[in-house]
Design a protein that fits this description.
heterodimer, A: mainly alpha, 2 domains, two-stranded antiparallel sheet, globular, B: alpha+beta, elongated, binds iron/sulfur cluster
Amino acid sequence: MLFWISTTLKVLVVVGFLAQVAALLLWVERKQSAMMQSRIGPNRATIKIGSLEIRAAGLVHSIADGIKMVWKADWEPTGGDHLLYRLAPIVAIVPALCLCAVLPFGPTVFLDHGRDLYDPAWATDAATLARSVPLQIANLDVGVLFIFAIAGAGVIGAALAGWSSDNKFSLMGGLRAASQMVSYEVAMGLSLVGAMMIYQTVRLDEMVTWQTQHCWGIFVQPVAFVLFVTAAIAETKRVPFDTPEGESELVAGYFTEYAGLKMAMFASGEFVEVCVSSALITTIFLGGWQFPFVQLTGLEFHYLGLNISWHWAHFVVVLVGFITFSLKCAFLIFMQLQVRWTLPRFRYDQIMKLGWRMLLPAALLNVLVTGTVLLFLNSGNG
Amino acid sequence: MPGKTKVLKKPTRTLADQSYLIEVVKGLGTTLKHFFQGTGQMVSGNVPNAVTDPLAEGISTLSYPEEKRAYSERWRGVHRLTHRDDGSPRCVACLCCSTACPAQCIYIKPGEYPEGDKRRGYERYPVEFVIDELRCIFCGFCVEACPCDAIRMDTGTHMTAFDVKSDFVYDKDKLMSMVSQHGTQKSENPRHEPGDPGHPGIDRLHGGH
Ligand code: SF4
Ligand code: SF4
């Protein structure tokens, strides 16, 4: 019973949050780019209640955009495949939402022990475990593999949209999206092999646990981190990897023929992807929900000759973990948006070269080096 | 004989450039610097005044139309017809401007002054003077062509957006009502009415030759 209630709640919270994320990120993106370019940014949309004028630093623009999208004519191309045309936006956004299912956004909550100090025995005690809620919707054994499988499905939406629109620009965009995403998935997957070898697991919650006990993934796998971030940005199809929708050559690429809410689905799918990839990078490379030097029992700092142990109640640790995870994600999202407004768009052939000639060999090399080092370390221990 | 040749050194790309990563980090550094500068100014309310200090570091957005910068004297805005001392137009309906206009957007209907008016025979006046500001390309040829300094574009006013096309067609009254950037409806150049000392006293019937 607890399982069903907690899972439903978690799904509602996560999906509810992701539904808002597009509107929020739209605002963040506009304001952030404005600040970078020494502009004020959007600030004219106003809600008037009597003499009160609400502008909320431009947030109202997101609402205005939403209203505009709803009222746009829902135009459809006369040619093409109507069923696929309508299906494509859904197929594009659903995988991005599914990915959130396996991301741990906090430590496991033991309901009976809110005020107690963490005790490792809880995790093995059946009665306590039965009254615990992992802050992760589905704790799959295949973890990372599930992510690759589902992320790979994202390409279908773009390809379908390009194919069913009966428009040459759309088709080109769909083709580019398909080839680009497939290429970068290879590098993306391979870049994580090193990390999996070190963590000795593909489960995301165990990856976080490893990082909590040892050190963050970015320190043991710096190359993989760079590769993975690059590939993840390429997967979101945003600048500098946005040739599938490069407006100077393809109008709007694979969603040229989409209007109104269908177009909004593609656009918000992009933001959801940014969000999810940030959460993924956080989980695999930045220690997930771990705040530096905080263990499940509280603050533990045993370096530089200092010996600080500051014990916290269980619920405080959980809260700190959740907030830390959110902050790390927010930081990564910020950096992704910053990249989007800093770099110019690659040419299509440059993207392919970067993917196949640079990222892929680098990822393979990373696997080799990691394996060799691990072998030496283990033989030393053994 | 061949001239001196100067061999330009091709810029070389180091490995660091080609790895792209370092340059990306540098670029991010630059944009982040500007981001924090702009955000700091926004949050602290220290945004430089875009009107008085247009070249200041940081946010330089001009919130038009609430804020405006003064235009240079030569800036070509919406036309105005300058006034004489008695408030009538300086224009003598010579049609120079409408002839010069490459967009052919000036229409003038000239009229003779009535019998007995001392200007009769010397000059005409515009019964109608219409400029279609939507067709106008703001080249300023009309101003250059006018022998009487009767038409000017020194109003410092942009073409405003209207809902109806006919609103863009400025008639004589509208053109006469426009003022210069400094608020005057006259022009600085002196004008001699027929009979004044300094008026050449030449008219169409009694030419000087
Ligand atoms: S500015 Fe040029 S186009 Fe406009 S009315 Fe004068 S001559 Fe014609
Ligand atoms: S405005 Fe000047 S050029 Fe045009 S008709 Fe009048 S006097 Fe002649």
